[in-house]
Design goal:
With 410 residues, this protein is an alpha+beta fold. It has 3 domains: 174 residues, Sandwich (Jelly Rolls), CATH 2.60.120; 109 residues; 92 residues, Jelly Rolls, CATH 2.60.120. The chain contains 13 helices and 23 strands. A 9-stranded antiparallel beta sheet has the order 5-4-1-21-18-23-16-15-14. Strands 2, 3, 6, 8, 9, 10, 11 and 12 form an 8-stranded antiparallel beta sheet that branches. A hairpin with a 2-residue loop joins strand 14 and strand 15. It is globular and about 75 Å long.
Length: 410
């Protein structure tokens, strides 16, 4: 078992207090967005080995059969786990399929694009299906709404714009009307492109014009919840057409313990909250808006699945008292949520590599004769050779209800 020292990424959208509150420390005052728990070369966790710290990727590559067991077939630790703390909306984004990732990565390698270049789209050759389990109330945009619903929203917005302008039809108002008609014909791709394409009116002041009309609406929260979400996002990104892309997407509000999973092609954006995120080990993100990072709309459109979908909730399976399992439809990972108290000692059959992180109070994680105590936000990597035939046991290390999340191979 190797205790991990995990890097915290300081992306601009990160919360200034959520991770600090989890860990019981004083906030730094700077954004703290993601704590990476894994072996992705972009920010590998450091593993404690014989009193020294080495990258978890280096540790695993030195003896993959021992550390990964049957998961060595993936060619890497197949999952990446994160504590994600969103204080502001993340980018409008989607992830490629495995085939798209391999092709995109190979093309950029052949073109000589440096892997750390800000304009690079494909950081690695892997896909990135993912799942988020809420630790606090958590809001997200996830997948396309039914086109008839988003068409009706743009139709109402078009009427409000005409009323606001005393019947005058501005360029932005005409485009909003066109979006209504595109969606009435179920043309999601056309509406998406009309909003995000370079040179669109929504990139030339049109978004701010629409937002000003939304702000003038009475009883906004009760009458137009989708518009209310767009207005909230506009407080951070007032001129970004991603504000209006939000009107195409499902708004999801999770309570602690609820989860959603995001397959390739699902357009999404997390809005705020703290959660445990698990994904295939990749950093491939195609962005379309709500970010200062590289945006490549044509490449994003290649990977997006333009079809309305119900919200992909991941319902937990009750394994035993104090132990539930989130099993999304991906082979790289599953996630165990264990809540030990003085009466329960949840047991996790990993039979492969595992990463456990304490997410409430302190826990003792043991495997065979070895045990470590983790404070909130601390994590441990357990190799496949340790878990094969030996379950992981989780105990509360102090009075009160504790919680840990354990990522294992799916």
């Amino acid at each position: 078992m190797h205790v991990l020292d995990a890097p915290i990424r300081d992306y601009a959208w990160g919360s200034t207090d959520l991770l600090a509150e989890l860990q019981g420390r004083t906030p730094t005052g700077r954004p703290e967005a993601e704590m990476w728990l894994g072996a992705h070369p972009g920010a590998p966790s450091l593993a404690e080995v014989d009193g020294r710290a080495i990258g978890l990727d280096e540790l695993i590559s030195a003896d993959p059969d021992r550390h990964l067991g049957q998961a060595a077939r993936f060619g890497r630790l197949p999952f990446l786990m994160k504590l994600l703390a969103a204080g502001e909306p993340l980018s409008i984004q989607a992830h490629p399929t495995l085939e798209q990732a391999r092709a995109g990565f190979a093309a950029e390698e052949a073109a000589g694009v440096p892997r750390d270049a800000t304009h690079r789209n494909y950081r690695d050759d892997n896909h990135k299906p993912e799942m988020i389990v809420a630790l606090t109330p958590f809001a997200a945009l996830c997948g396309f709404r039914r086109t008839e619903d988003s068409s009706a929203t743009f139709e109402r917005l078009s009427a409000h714009m005409r009323e606001h302008a005393d019947g005058e039809v501005t360029e932005a108002a005409a485009e909003v009307r066109r979006l209504h008609l595109l969606l009435a014909e179920a043309d999601l791709a056309g509406a998406f492109e009309a909003l995000l394409t370079p040179g669109s009116v929504f990139r030339r002041g049109g978004t701010a014009e629409v937002v000003s009309v939304i702000e003038a609406l009475p009883d906004l929260e009760a009458l137009e919840p989708e518009l209310a979400t767009a207005l909230q996002i506009s407080r951070v990104h007032p001129d970004d057409p991603g504000v209006l892309v939000a009107l195409l997407l499902n708004r999801v509000d999770l309570v602690p313990g609820q989860a959603i999973h995001l397959p390739a092609g699902n357009v999404h954006a997390y809005l705020h909250g703290l959660g445990v995120e698990v994904m295939a080990s990749s950093d491939n993100v195609l962005r379309g808006g709500l970010t200062a990072k590289h945006v490549d709309v044509p490449e994003l459109e290649k990977v997006v699945a333009f079809e309305p979908l119900p919200v992909p909730y991941t319902n937990p399976e009750q394994v035993a008292e104090g132990h539930v399992l989130f099993r999304p439809p991906f082979e790289e990972f599953r996630l165990h949520q264990v809540s030990p108290d003085g009466r329960t000692v949840p047991v996790v059959e990993a039979n492969g590599p595992a990463i456990a992180v304490a997410t409430r109070s302190s826990v003792e994680v043991s495997c065979g004769d070895e045990a470590v105590v983790l404070g909130p936000g601390q994590a441990v990597f357990v190799s496949a050779d340790e878990t094969t035939g030996r379950p992981l046991r989780v105990r509360a290390a102090e009075d009160g209800h504790a919680m840990a999340h354990i990522a294992t191979v799916g």
